[in-house]
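Training component of the fellowship. As part of building independent skills, the fellow (R.M.) carried out the full modelling exercise for a liganded target. The chosen ligand was ribose-5-phosphate. The inputs are recorded below so that the supervisory panel can assess the work.
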Amino acid sequence: MRVFCGRAHTELGDEICRHLQVAPGMCEVKSFADGEAQVKILDDVRGLDVFIVQPTCPPVNEALMELLVMVDALRRSSARRITAVVPYYGYARQDRKHEGRVPITAKLVANLFATAGVDRMLCMDLHAQQIQGFFDIPVDHLIAKPVIANYLKKSELDNLVIVSPDVGSVKLADGFSRIFNCDFAIIEKRRKSDTEIEHGHVIGNISGKNVIIVDDMISTAGSMASAIEIAREHGAKSVRIAASHGLFVGPAWERLAAAGADEIIVTNSVPQNIQAVPESVNFTVLSVAPTLAEAIIRIHHDKSMSPLFEPGYLS
Ligand code: R5P
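Fellow's submitted model of the complex:
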């Protein structure tokens, strides 16, 4: 087997390789002067089980195209099987026609992967579970919940309530509340634009409680910043936020610094620029490299993924 890394998140690729105790596959990934991705595989991969680690994070189009070009190069180099390890799957939020004359990009990107020659997908916390069905190739869909829950358990917080900042994350909040054996609450969210949202009623009781708001991703942080404010207005004792994918684009850090959560927890599914984090923010990045490495080993040896979903995994 061989693990290759694109340029989107070499740190994560290297960490996965360290866990697997293998050297990263040798390849040259560069750009032509006009910006086109240029790839040369330096290892002989004929007949090998190949994995490419590349979250399609910002700059999304570059990461995506580079991954597709790498897949093409590996396929033409006669790799036996190609698994795209995409811990963050960009373009996932456009997953249905919510109004007329709009695309379904989550499906378009799934088609692109298959056309390029991907045989299997290894993803983490897709924006919606149904996206698995957009692929006609096997998809292993991992979750970061055990990693986040395991970390939160160490804080030994009592009187907890898990909060979903919108109806889309209710299942996630329910999953966390079962692990912590506590209640969950929902904040009603209405989106005014892709960067602005409006929060309304709270369903459930958060007064006097230690609140943990969970979501799949933080992008411009409009959802989370507003949810933090609502939680405080409703008498939360403390407010922590946790998300699998921390993109932190546009006004995200400004908004989060102003909202003032007690802690912001994300994983390293996408690269984190620690220099951009305001001093006042208590920021924690948890590594999902051990989970991804374990999944890669299991795929390679045709072993079940089920243990990775057990609540006690990693604890
Ligand atoms: C929405 O459905 C997602 O689960 C997130 O709540 C959303 O994408 C976060 O975006 P932003 O940080 O820009 O509010």
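The panel noted the following from the submitted structure. The pocket of ribose-5-phosphate is lined by residues 93, 165-166, 168-169, 197, 215-224 (CB under 6 Å). The domain at 145-286 is CATH 3.40.50.2020 (Rossmann fold).
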